[in-house]
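Batch manifest, entry 17 of 40.
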Amino acid sequence: MGDVIAQGAMPYIKIFDMLGATALVGAKRLADVGATVRLYDKMELGKIGPLAIVGASDESLVQAMAFLDAATARRPVRLFSTNEDACAWLRTAPACRD
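Output type: structure tokens
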């Protein structure tokens, strides 16, 4: 997340592909990443673009929910089971907030 912020990529659309996630990427770690997003938003450091999260297993859904619970930033976000569906939504997703 630090690299995304440092590169100025927060306003851009993003896909968080969790299809290959392992137990090494636990819900706690994703909640920590989500907290960074929430802080970025709370400090009004810039725009935040739409986010599509892709995951197919129950484990990836739990991980995605941990991230979303912590990353309460104001931006469009949706969960998908395929990258194709995520990409289709991102092509029509609302623009990032001001």
